[in-house]
Design a protein that fits this description.
Structural class: alpha/beta
Order of helices and strands: HEEHHEHEHEHEHEHHHHHEEHHHEEEHE
CATH class of the largest domain: Alpha Beta
CATH architecture of the largest domain: Alpha-Beta Complex
CATH superfamily of the largest domain: SecA, preprotein cross-linking domain
Largest sheet: 4 strands, parallel
Number of domains: 2
Low-confidence stretches: none
Radius of gyration: 29 Å
Length: 427
């Protein structure tokens, strides 16, 4: 079956290569005939004045053959894509143009759309605000413009659909990626994760734990401010190693502290902090830097660890609060207790499971609240609109409507911002 499919694809590729000169020539002729004509592009009347140069046609050939074409701003990437898109759309299996934001998807689809329509092809585009029926209709077009997020999440949703009629995409035959370095390198660091609501009650512990975390963060903020002041004095006195230690301590205590960010605009203090960090990591003594803090934050891995000082502040009268019991050991103790009946053993096992779940759940929620307060800033990573926390795309700055952080982080942000804490989601 696979070899048969490969044979068909190879035959298709050979056929497209054979008609490439005629197809590209036809597309160029349409561009010539459209010169001087105008049509609406994102609500603005736009006059067509583009006839491709030979070098742009060469760029189209490069794209058709699956290679990367580097073009500087203003050299006509949008027009270059028209040629391989038209050629591959002739196969009838659909072509996707992946761009960086919704505006460009709509603009380019409407701008280049007149060329495609003159060539007998249909054009559509996918926007974040579209409902499934609109998406399905646009995916059925010969050519579809959209962002990598929209194509990716539609693919994930289609794979979760229980019925074929709920799916919106029709296949993945040929795609051109605009700003390929951004999509395949920068944004590739952020996985596309789809989530759905869990059939469970809303976890109220985020609200219950919030006052304690607010107090802890306030104490840490005051402490880090003092550490930065001390580091600055040491730096000005020429005691660079001691200053580097303090800068590192401040970085691990509150990486987004405004005063620290201002200091780190200068290369010297930041370099000293990283030098000390490398030294302590090499000697496996990084824990010594964290001992005077209430909690430590590893900005690279986003791992937060509550120190002994922090644990004593959060639960001075309950030292066992942060000790997660060994479930295997607890269950073994129950099984080997001959004084218990089978019914009593079952009850004790249920208690052990509940204790383990409660402790680990509370520690997890504490950590997520700390992450919400120290690593996620309002109007940067997220905004609050209409009583809801909305994620902001770190690359485009656009709001990702309907998306939620997983593992309780979104609930922690909702508790932080005093909006309704919604149900947990599962990925």
């Amino acid at each position: 079956m696979i070899s048969k499919k490969k044979h068909i694809l190879l035959a298709e590729h050979e056929a497209l290569e054979e008609i490439l000169p005629d197809a590209f020539a036809l597309a160029k002729e349409v561009c010539k005939r459209l010169c001087g004509k105008s049509w609406s592009v994102v609500g603005r009347e736009t006059k067509w004045e583009m006839i491709p140069y030979d070098v742009q046609i060469i760029g189209g050939i490069i794209l058709h053959r699956g290679n990367v074409a580097e073009m500087k701003t203003g050299e006509g990437k949008t027009l270059v894509a028209v040629f391989p898109i038209y050629l591959n759309a002739l196969a009838g299996r659909g072509v996707h143009l992946i761009t960086v934001n919704d505006y460009l998807a709509q603009r380019d689809a409407e701008w280049m759309g007149e060329v495609y329509r003159r060539l007998g092809l249909s054009v559509g585009y996918i926007l974040n605000s579209m409902h499934p029926d609109q998406r399905r209709s646009n995916y059925l077009c010969d050519i579809t413009y959209g962002t990598n997020n929209e194509f990716g999440f539609d693919y994930l949703r289609d794979n979760m659909s229980l019925q074929k009629e709920d799916q919106v995409q029709r296949g993945h035959a040929f795609a051109i990626v605009d700003e390929v370095d951004s999509v395949l390198i920068d944004e590739a660091r952020t996985p596309l994760i789809i989530s759905g609501a869990v059939d469970a009650p809303v976890d109220s512990s985020f609200i219950d734990l919030k006052p304690s975390i607010q107090n802890l963060v306030k104490k840490q903020n005051i402490l880090v401010t003092d550490i930065i002041n001390e580091a600055n004095n040491l730096f000005e006195s020429g005691k660079e190693k001691e200053a580097g230690y303090k800068y590192l301590q401040a970085l691990r205590g509150m990486p987004k502290h405004p005063k620290l960010l201002k200091v780190f605009q200068e290369a010297g203090p930041k370099k000293l902090a990283f030098q000390v960090e490398s030294e302590y990591m090499r000697d496996k003594k990084l824990y010594e830097v964290d001992e005077d803090l209430f909690f430590s934050v590893d900005e690279k891995t986003q791992v937060i660890d509550i120190t002994e000082k922090g644990r004593n502040t959060l639960a001075p009268n309950n030292p066992d609060m942060f000790v997660i019991p060994d479930l295997g050991e607890l269950l073994n103790d129950v099984d080997t207790n001959k004084a218990l009946s089978q019914l009593d053993k079952d009850k004790e096992k249920e208690k052990a499971h509940q204790l383990h779940a409660d402790r680990s759940g509370k520690i997890h929620n504490l950590t997520q609240l700390l992450r919400a307060y120290t690593m996620y800033d309002k109007d940067v990573e997220y905004v609050v609109q209409n009583g809801r926390v909305q994620i902001v795309d770190e690359f485009t700055g656009r709001i990702l409507s309907g998306r939620r952080y997983s593992d309780g982080l979104h609930q922690a942000l909702e508790a932080k911002e005093n909006v309704t804490v919604e149900r947990e989601t599962q990925t």
